[in-house]
């Protein structure tokens, strides 16, 4: 059950990302052609005001189709109509006029020639696959030639539409974190929750319920107990505790070094209480933590490039596993994890790599500065590099998650 809820949470984050693109595109009169809950193919769909709304059969996230992400070219038709031309060579006389107008830059004339091409496709005896591919190609070309196509819009509109996806994830992260602070966040106390078997803490006589008040005779607060133990660097230390209202000095013990987190520990866990905050304080804390995690993610990306942080990369497998474990602990922990995943999605999508949102934003800015469009070939070359890097991160994350699942 927890796995299903975790998958649903990840799907929700993708859906609200796409919803951000969709609603801002509507606001700037760049009418999307499709908006789906889940991914196509459609289980059910309905067209309203020229937009196809539907529920997809692949239960992950959402999908929005914005018309004309790139200036159309004659090669677009070649890719989609190749099978149709093989089965009905006479269609070439309907296709060539459209391609010629595209090559000459007469886009309005190219769009005016599309009805004749459609009529030819309807008259041709094509296989189902060839017919669907040709129809999809002509529809996409018609959308790309429309006045509200993405590539025709001013740079500020394109940036607004693309930035809306990550921005929605960012806002959602802050709002969800604020909700978590209002519901209550764990605050460590000085009381011992449990003593781990076989660890040095057991030899000191420490018991669950003891309240640690001093380390080596120096008074400590709950949030400084761990750092005080670690500061021993492995030399014997003495704990002072309150037990049943009496102060006791326990037997000395040497903390053990844990290579996983590079700290010295005695082997006990402190209990935690949940503390709730008001609306204003919750929003302030949420913004603070969002900024702190943003800086940490930025540093980790730098470590990935240098090679030292590659073990930290995770894929959807690890994300689902981590959020599932948090859900089993406490629903507030799960909501906090979900907020940070939303933030991570926002920051990942803002990387200046095509086909990520950040890549489209970067290209729009460059086009605005140079005063003319970047050639289609440049988009395609940069996209190929970006896709390769994204796939590399994905497979690196999958490899790390498999190792974690296997205990490696």
Main pleated sheet: 4 strands, antiparallel
Mean pLDDT: 84
Helix content: 55-70%
Poorly predicted ranges: 315-324
What this model shows, in words?
The chain is an alpha+beta fold and about 400 residues long. The chain folds into three domains: about 75-145, no CATH class; about 185-275, Roll (Pdz3 Domain), CATH 2.30.42.10; about 280-405, no CATH class. The protein has helices at about 1-25, 75-85, 90-105, 105-110, 115-125, 130-145, 155-185, 200-205, 225-230, 280-305, 315-330, 330-350, 355-370, 375-405, and strands at about 35-50, 50-65, 185-195, 210-215, 220, 240-245, 245-250, 255-260, 265, 270-275. The strands form four sheets. The protein has a four-stranded antiparallel beta sheet with strand order 5-4-6-7. Strands 1-2 form a two-stranded antiparallel ribbon. Strands 3-10 form a two-stranded antiparallel ribbon. Strand 8 and strand 9 form a beta hairpin. The two termini are about 25 Å apart. The relative contact order is 0.10. The model is unreliable at about 315-325 (pLDDT under 50).
List keywords for this structure.
alpha+beta; two-stranded antiparallel sheet; elongated; single chain; Pdz3 Domain; 408 residues
């Amino acid at each position: 059950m927890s796995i299903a809820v975790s998958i649903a949470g990840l799907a929700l984050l993708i859906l609200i990302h796409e919803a951000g693109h969709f609603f801002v595109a509507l606001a700037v009169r760049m009418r999307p052609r499709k908006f789906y809950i889940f991914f196509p193919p459609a289980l059910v769909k309905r067209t309203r005001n020229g937009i196809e709304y539907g529920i997809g059969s692949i239960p992950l996230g959402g999908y929005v189709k914005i018309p004309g992400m790139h200036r159309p070219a004659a090669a677009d038709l070649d890719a989609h109509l190749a099978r149709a031309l093989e089965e009905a060579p006479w269609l070439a006389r309907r296709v060539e006029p459209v391609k010629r107008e595209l090559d000459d830059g007469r886009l309005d004339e190219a769009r005016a020639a599309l009805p004749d091409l459609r009529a030819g496709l309807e008259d041709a005896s094509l296989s189902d696959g060839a017919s669907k591919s040709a129809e999809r190609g002509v529809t996409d070309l018609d959308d790309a030639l429309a006045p509200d196509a993405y590539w025709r819009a001013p740079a500020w509109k394109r940036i607004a539409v693309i930035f809306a996806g990550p921005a929605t994830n960012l806002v959602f992260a802050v709002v969800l974190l604020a909700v978590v602070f209002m519901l209550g966040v764990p605050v460590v106390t000085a009381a011992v929750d449990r003593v781990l078997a076989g660890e040095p803490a057991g030899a000191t006589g420490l018991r669950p319920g003891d309240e640690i008040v001093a380390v080596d005779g120096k008074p400590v607060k709950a949030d400084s107990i761990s750092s005080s133990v670690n500061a021993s660097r492995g030399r014997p230390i003495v704990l002072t505790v309150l037990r049943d209202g009496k102060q006791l000095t326990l037997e000395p013990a040497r903390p053990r070094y844990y290579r996983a987190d590079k700290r010295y520990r005695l082997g006990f866990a402190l209990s935690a209480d949940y503390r709730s905050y008001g609306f204003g304080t919750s929003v302030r804390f949420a913004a603070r933590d969002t900024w702190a995690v943003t800086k940490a993610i930025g540093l980790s990306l730098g470590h990935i490039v240098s090679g030292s942080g590659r073990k930290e990369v995770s894929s959807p497998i690890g994300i689902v596993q981590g959020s599932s474990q948090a859900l089993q602990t406490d629903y507030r922990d799960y909501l906090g994890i979900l907020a940070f995943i939303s933030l991570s999605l926002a920051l990942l999508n803002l990387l200046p790599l095509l086909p990520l949102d950040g890549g489209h934003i970067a290209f729009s800015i460059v086009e605005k500065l140079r005063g003319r469009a970047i050639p289609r070939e440049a988009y395609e070359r940069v996209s190929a590099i970006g896709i390769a890097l994204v796939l590399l991160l994905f497979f690196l994350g999958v490899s790390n998650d498999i190792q974690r699942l296997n205990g490696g």
